[in-house]
């Protein structure tokens, strides 16, 4: 890759996604490498939320459930998300948190495999995925077991007891991309269903759920979908699995919520996987983020993201090789998500020192520096600058500063 | 009560809550009797949400989790709600939907009564309460039974099998107020725990959870708390029950969410009943509604609400007696929530015709007209006007209009 300033400028000048940065509120000078934790704010969101608050809620009041499309928002936004992840209309809803949707997906999968007793995952999966499994185990009184295997050995653990395999497509620390089609095939061959967590892939790279014949999937609204802090999450249920009993059987999943029937009667299709009243303001912000994303070409996003990560890695080798950063990302670029990560004994202090230099990265305990590379709003020049500032931090041995140590002890 | 115009004007003039109406966005002329379905919009919410979107999210980005108090919002707002419902700080969180919180409360209660097998409720409870019970029954594979009894007989059904009794303090149709202390005492005497649904009482009347020695409670953020459409709900867990295992054991309920530990280790106190990432924008709107409510005297609100319902009832007797409205509210004013309801064979059509006359009420299938009387923003004169417009609707026999019939068929 071309590293001279002119070459970097040329890469940015011919970037087909270069127009998108201006659609986000991002202060000049700031290099935001944390879009995989909280996506940046689309400019359009402010006016959309203001309209939802003052016109739809304030003026329209209760009538807006129909007139402003509030009641159909979970399905409407779900359909938009479907187009980003290789799902069909009617297979995705936007609702609840990722954690709650993991529960719904696991519980539905278990109901489809009543003779099996194991939820299987990998030991280093994102914590909330594992925690939700453990909650189900506790609630089942021992009937269901939450089992974790080593990441490399998880497919070998598939046996006739496994009802459902829960895996994340792009690992939150290493960024390793799992082969969704192959893993799904092997799990289904063993008679299990698969729940994919797309939190670190949806909106950053091509995802093809139906191409992989996936059963269930969940994902996060506030990372690459740029839906805002704590945005509603999403749930995919393949059409063939939609007859499953939703355990969180709330009134918005009823066939006729406003008939106020005494018995639960699940809605057809994906609707039954709604539970309570939809979070209208959060959904409005989420929809802005997704509408923006839908204007971009996801293949171009993936190509740019891989360019950005390759550039980051090569710059690190050139500028920071002597400072003890240990790569925590796959050697093969095709297996890398939209991020790079390094282990470093002073990871926490370095992330703090970078913040003071206007580079926002992420620290993940115990020692991981994680840099998210959202292709919609980052420039190639930002990557070069970020590594330069990291180089400065290392030269100044910022980790010796007592104030960073103190904060590390309480985080 | 004084019904002449001067008397009504005098009631409004000396209303200690009269200043609150201007704090809400309410068009002059509109009579909004649906605050028990969706509370009106506090004016302060627009600026607060705009700041959350552009300053906290847009400018502060990921740092706002600490700097803008996002991560502590569920507990901070929970403590504010606690002061409205007779709970202590640390006993309430604002999180998820009412339905999801019902699940959490029921699951926690069941875990505290492992030898019992029944969740008991009344047959006419709000549908989502019953539906959530039924989801637990289905998921338990028959170990747990969701049992409903007639409203009058529900306490007689308490036996050694009942793990938990789920009741709503103010009935969503009739507005009947349950005696929380007495019901709780009887349930606990039978060895059961009680989950109270406060959706139609919190923020409208005095609620004294600890005075009644309540075990668990849930409630809605978008009715009398004026938190906005689909606002986050709340969950109360009495301190003595907080060691219960939260089944929805997501990462925000972990003792150390950002340590990314492999095993779930529940946080102490109410925090463990959080699940996924908090819905920041929804919480910001909710907090505005609650902050406004906290400036009012809840006893004055209750007194005014009872004055409004008495006025409504007396005006109905005077003006609409011959039109076949059947009262569906308790004869004893003390047992009335902040609403009045009538059954009428043309209930649906009448509610539609009232809308055209700028009176927003609510229809609840099969034949109930429900009028919510939010004391913060309604005036006594509004009640008189509303009944006058209802009188006009009846005189014109609006239910004969074909357009209302047509819409009734599809709702």
UniProtKB/TrEMBL annotation, chains A, B:
Which positions are annotated as binding pyridoxal 5'-phosphate? 98-99, 126-129, 168, 197, 200, 222, 251, 277
Recorded catalytic activity of this chain's protein: 3-hydroxy-L-kynurenine + H2O = 3-hydroxyanthranilate + L-alanine + H(+); L-kynurenine + H2O = anthranilate + L-alanine + H(+)
Class in the EC hierarchy, top level:
hydrolase
This protein's cofactor list reads: pyridoxal 5'-phosphate
Alphabetical UniProt keywords: Hydrolase, Pyridine nucleotide biosynthesis, Pyridoxal phosphate
**Subunit structure comment from the entry:** Homodimer.
* Name of this protein: Kynureninase
- Which gene carries the instructions for this protein? kynU
